[in-house]
Every structure is written in C-alpha cells, then in structure tokens.
Amino acid sequence: MLNLEHLSKIYADGTRALSDINLSVHEGEIVALIGGSGCGKTTLLRLIAGLDRASAGAIRLDDEPLSGPHPAIGIVFQEPRLLPWLTVFDNIAFGLDGVSAAERKGRVHHALEKIGLVEHADRWPRDLSGGQQQRVAIARAFVTNPKVLLLDEPFSALDAFTRASLHEHLLGLWEETRPTVVLVTHDVQEAVTLADRAIVMQPKPGRIFDELSLSLARPRDKTGLPFESSVRRVLTALDQSLNTPHKQPQREKDRQAAALWW
Amino acid sequence: MTGQAESQAWSSLKGAAALAAPPLAERKRRTFDWRLLLGFLLPVLIALLWEAAVHFGIAQGRLVPPPSRIVATLLALSETGELWTHVWATLWRVIVGFVIGAAAGIVFGALSGSIRTARYLLDPTLQALRAIPSIAWVPLFILWLGIFEASKVALIAVGVFFPVYLGIAGAILSVDRKLVEVGHVFRLSRLKLARRILLPAVLPEALIALRSGLGLGFMFVVAAEFMGASEGLGYLLVDGQQMGKPDQILAAIIAFALLGKIADSLLVYGTRPLVRWQDTVRERL
Ligand SMILES: Nc1ncnc2c1ncn2[C@@H]1O[C@H](COP(=O)(O)OP(=O)(O)OP(=O)(O)O)[C@@H](O)[C@H]1O
Ligand SMILES: [Mg+2]
C-alpha cells in the first residue's frame, strides 16, 4: 500500500507545484493520474521516486516512510532514458546489480521475451525505434520486480498503433507480479484502458480534483459500451476540472476528444 | 483519427506489434569511394611538376630540393639509423609529456568538473595560467629544470594539460542530468555512479580532448627541440638550417607529419571500440 499524506511541493522559485495531496493506492492497483499541463503530475512521481524532496507531508510504502530512492519503487520516464553505451540487454540488466550472472541472464531474457525484443538484445539503443526504446525502458523498470511502478506519460510520444501494442506489453508484464502502478497520462483512452482508478488533478497549485473508479473487467473491450461510458465520465470530470462547461455530449466528438485530448 | 479507424487499430494488436518492431535494418556495406583519391592529386601533381622543372634545368632546386632528393635524404638518414634515433627521441618526449600532461589534465578536469568547491578553487587559477602562451615558460623551465630532457617534457606536458583539462571538465559538466537520475533511481553509490554513468558519458568528449592534447604535444615538441637538443626531429630541422641542408629540413617535416598522423590514428582507432555506441555522424565521415 502506497500512502501519500498531506504532500506538498514548493519549488525553490516559489512555484506551488503540489498542495496537500492525499492518496492511497493499494497493492496491485493501477491508478491513472490525469490532468492538464503543469498540474504537478511529474512532480508527484518524482517525489514518490525519491528524486525530489517534498516540502511537507509524507510518503509511506507499507507504513515505511520513504526518503530518497527505494529499491521497491521503479520509474519509467517520459523519455526512454536508455544508456546509449549499453546494449539493450545491458540496459535492461542495469538495475540488477546484486544478482548472480545466471539469474540476471534469465530475468533479462524473460523480460525481452515479454516485450518482444529478444532478437534485439545485442543492439545499441540508437538502432531502435522510439517505441522499442520505450519498451526497453519499461522492461528495465520491471526486471527488478518493484512493488510500485511509476510511469510518467511513457507512451505520449508514440503513435496510436504503437501505444496500443505497448499497453498490451505493459499489461502482460504487470500480470506477472501485479505491482502497484501509478500512471501519468494525457490520454483518457489510455487511462480507461489500463487503470482501476483515475485521479483527476487541477493546477495552480496542483491538487486532486476528483477520483473515478474504472472497475471494468480485464481484458478490456475498447469498443464496448462500459468502456465508452467510462471514457465519458473521465472526460466530464476533466472538463469540470478545467472549468469549461461540457456542451451537448456527442458520442463521436467525445471519442475524438478522448484520443486527442491533449 | 476517426472512431472506426481507431477500433481497427485496437483490434489488430498483432499488426501493431509488427509495425512497432521493424526487421533489423541491414547495414549497407561501405564501398570504397574513389573520390577519396582526389586528395592525392594536387600534391602529387605539384611534386611531379617540380621534379620535372629541376630535372630539365628550368629551376635550380638548391633551396627547394626536388622530391627525389628529399626521398633520397630520408632513405639515407634511415639507412644509417640516424632517422630512427631522431624519431625515437622525439616520440619519447611526446609520449612522456603527453602522459604526464594528460594524466594531470584528467585528474584536475575530473575534480573541477565533479566537485563544485574544487571548481571554485582550481578553475580561476588554471584559467589564468592558460592565458599564458606556453612557450613563455621556456626560459623558466630551462632555469629550473636544465636544458636537457626534463624541461622539454615539462613544456610538452603543459601544452597537453590545458586542452585535456578543459575538455574533461566541460564533458563532466555537460553530462545529461536525465541519465544521472537513472543512476539515482537504481541507488548507485557515488563511486558506481561515476563508473557506470559519468565515465562512459564523458568518454567521447574526453577522447576528443586527448586528441587535441596530442596534437599540441607534437607542436610543443618542436619548440622544445628548438631550444637546444642534440637529437630529435626538431634538432634535424635546426641542423638543416644551420648547415644549409633544405632537403634535411623537408625530410624532417615529412617525418613529423607522418609521425603525428600515425599517433593520432592510433589514438582514434585504439579507442574506437569504446565509443562505438555513439549516435553521431562521425561514422559517416
Ligand atoms: N524544477 C522546477 N523548478 C521550478 N518549478 C518547477 C520545476 N519543475 C516543475 N515546476 C513547476 O511545477 C509545476 C508542475 O510541473 P510538473 O512538471 O509536475 O507538471 P506536469 O503535470 O507533469 O505537466 P505536464 O503534463 O506538462 O508534464 C509547473 O508549474 C512547473 O512550471
Ligand atoms: Mg509531466
């Protein structure tokens, strides 16, 4: 269980990026953070990952207060951030430091299979496509079996096809160990595809506006009515959070808006 | 995107996966570009013209000897073993000076690049020293270290030090913060962070710095050997001037050019495996 208690972040220049965030994510849950640009989503993930310090409040993982990077917390950044001097294999193995060579090989190989890049194991990151690089970054985070996985818009730079296939890869990896996932996204479809719960955030200062439960059965049928209505619910909440009144919801318009929301 | 196209996209995940994973791009075998030989055309042409001009008595060739005489001088010098003595003397000075200067440059560059306090402490002084033309040290070095090897090596080391220092410090300062954060996420200790992230990240720029250091090393060895030496290619130059042997001067110049080029190529090719991962245009140059 991941607990955020009265979390605030004020940057050195006085920007109030987050104010009084309270959130509990239980084990194995996938939570999507959704909200406009600048409402503190990245800041929140960086605090949980221990890359920045909160100005006030606490973060607890299973009642253990966190201060700094924790071995049970993994993060995938918006960019792949692969180390260009390591092969795909070594990039995935980067976090497996105290692990025996044989086990490292097994685990990386398994991850490579899961993301469908076995034949690319010995290539340099520069020779991979953007989507392939992002898959390697996801595998690098998963291979250490984190309890909590933080994903900061990991698919936002990719086209819809690649994104759909990466959602599959992500869920495939998630099924194995069921880590807690906090996913930041701009894409309502993505949130409804992946998450159990959507947290809608508001900027200035960054705070939680609304929470929506997305308890659809997995695997999710993206063409079904429950999916559609969930998308609509999230969109409505988003619109309210942006204080732009929602006019005459039209199915087709909604769908387009969902895909191109940012 | 319309709803229809989208649902097609969702439902054809297999196809999407295939799209996302294009087959290995086959590297095109590089074929030899004959235009590279064009570079030889001009020097060879000029050499032939000059040779012919001297041969047919159009030019005198005393002060500017024809290529055949320069080659003959080179061969003669190498047959007596004299050339190799001089080459070795020069090379040894450059190597020792380079190693000392580069080592100091790496150490100080690493300190000033990675520790802020060290940078405030060291950088202003080193920058001030850098403003002094290195040759200006020569009289002092001779007074302090004598006219033999030590002062020559010191001059070369000073010449090598500054580009290496600047290059290393700059490379460390410009390491991508985002990659360093990856190290933080995996909780690397300072030492491991340096070894697994900083070192490989600065390697390409560090090698460029070493290369320019080596180039300056060859520049300063000439200056060092001008200031009084009994052997070395620089001595051959001075000797050729004093004895009025322009063919010897040109032979020494050619030896310098070859030596410098060979040393540079050794450095580049010797370290290429270390930076093979780089995504730059250099591969195509
Ligand atoms: N290092 C920093 N120093 C000062 N202010 C910052 C810093 N990083 C972020 N901010 C500010 O904090 C606020 C939240 O930024 P954050 O990056 O968390 O937003 P975000 O929700 O991730 O936005 P986006 O969706 O565009 O990525 C913004 O107003 C931003 O300008
Ligand atoms: Mg962000």
Automatic annotation (TrEMBL), chain A:
Transmembrane segments: none annotated. It comes from the Bacteria. Residues 2-228 form the ABC transporter domain. Keywords: ATP-binding, Nucleotide-binding, Transport. PROSITE patterns: ABC_TRANSPORTER_1 (PS00211), ABC_TRANSPORTER_2 (PS50893). Signal peptide: none annotated. It holds the Pfam family ABC_tran. The keyword Cell inner membrane does not apply. The keyword Nucleus does not apply. Residues 243-262 are annotated as: Disordered. One of its GO terms (molecular function) is ATP binding. Belongs to the ABC transporter superfamily. This is Sulfonate transport system ATP-binding protein.
TrEMBL record, chain B:
Keywords: Cell membrane, Membrane, Transmembrane, Transmembrane helix, Transport. Its main location: membrane. Residues 87-267 form the ABC transmembrane type-1 domain. Gene3D superfamilies: MetI-like. The keyword Cell membrane applies. InterPro entries: MetI-like (IPR000515), MetI-like_sf (IPR035906). It is found in: Cell membrane. CDD domains: TM_PBP2. It is a multi-pass membrane protein. The chain crosses the membrane at residues 36-58, 91-115, 127-147, 153-173, 216-237, 249-269. Pfam families: BPD_transp_1. GO terms for biological process: alkanesulfonate transmembrane transport; cellular response to sulfur starvation. The keyword Secreted does not apply. GO terms for cellular component: plasma membrane. Probably part of an ABC transporter complex. Probably responsible for the translocation of the substrate across the membrane. Belongs to the binding-protein-dependent transport system permease family. This is Sulfonate transport system permease protein. It comes from Microvirga subterranea.
